[in-house]
Fold this sequence. Notes:
Blueprint lengths: L6 E6 L3 H12 L5 E3 L6 H11 L3 E4 L8 H11 L4 E6 L4 H10 L3 E4 L4 H12 L7 H15 L15 H11 L4 H8 L3 H15 L4 H10 L1
Helix pairs in contact: 2-3, 4-6, 6-10, 8-9
Amino acid sequence: MSRDEKVRVLIAEDQALIRDGIxxxxxxxxxxxxxxxxxADGEQAIEFARRYRPDIILMDLxxxxxxxxxxxxxxxxxxxxxxxxxxxxFETNDLIFEAVSAGAKAYLLKDTRIDxxxxxxxxxxxxxxxxxxxxxxxxxxxxxxxxGPRVSAKLPVRDGLTARENxxxxxxxxxxxxxxIGEQLHLAEGTVKNYVSAILEKCQVKNRTELAIKAITY
Length: 218
């Protein structure tokens, strides 16, 4: 993204006061955001996504007509280049898991400071994960709870990784440490550490938890 290019942001929120407040505060953040007309429910979010083609949608989850998770799925099916960030008052494990599984790139609460929201938007636009380590860990726990301990058995081969790196990625998703991976694959722990660093760089994530989330949800 060019420095002169503004990020087009759509706010999907059924409470007008909150929607307008976020829009006003975001517009003041270094003037690098262009706020398009906000949506009052999930159906309107889908309609406005088609009309305005935003780079980012700040998506509430509990909205009339169509909820935020269903709207996320429908928007990303039609406009896969759109980046969706959940902004909600709810942080239960099942909602976090459903939102990220639907394609949301980040999950924020409505009491998050505006500068953090702005920073998350910029991070997502730069291809980085917007999931905090705590949220990512909860998603991984929920995924394992729902799918069972052998979640990695059907893990697809990741393009761009070598056969050995894919093998190590599978063991990371199983929750194994570098020591355990080394013992299982007959590799020195330092060698495993180098492989993990390479995998993190190739997958553009910051830590093992984010790596596991990306591997099993995308």
